[in-house]
Amino acid sequence: MSGRIPQYFIDELVARADIVELIGSRVPLKKYGKEFKACCPFHNEKTPSFHVVPDKQFYHCFGCGVHGTALGFLMEHDHMSFVEAVEELAGRVGLDVPREGTAVARPTTPTDGLFTALDQAAELYRSELRNSERAKEYFKKRGVTGDIAARFGLGYAPDAWDFTLRKLGGSEADRTRLLQAGLIIERERRPGSNADSGHYDRFRDRVMFPIRDARGRTIGFGGRIMDKGEPKYLNSPETEVFHKGRELYGLYEVRQASRTLTRLLVVEGYMDVVRLHQAGVNYAVATLGTATTPEHLSRVFRLCQELIFCFDGDRAGRAAAWRALQNSLAHVRDGRQIRFLFLPDGHDPDSLVGEEGREAFEARIEQSMTLSEYLLSHLREQVDLTTRDGRARFKELATPLIEQIPEGAFRDILLMDIDRQAQIDTGLVAASKAAAGARIAPITTTQHARHAAGRGSVVRQAIRLLVQFPACAAGAPGPEGLEGIDRPGIPLLIELLNDLRENPCANTAALLERWRGRPDYEHLFKLASSEIAVGAEGAAQELAGALQQIFPERADQRRDELLRKKTREGLTEAERAELQGFLTRSQHRIDAAGHRT
Question: Within 13 Å of residue 589, how many CA atoms lie on the same side as its CB?
Answer without folding.
Answer: 7
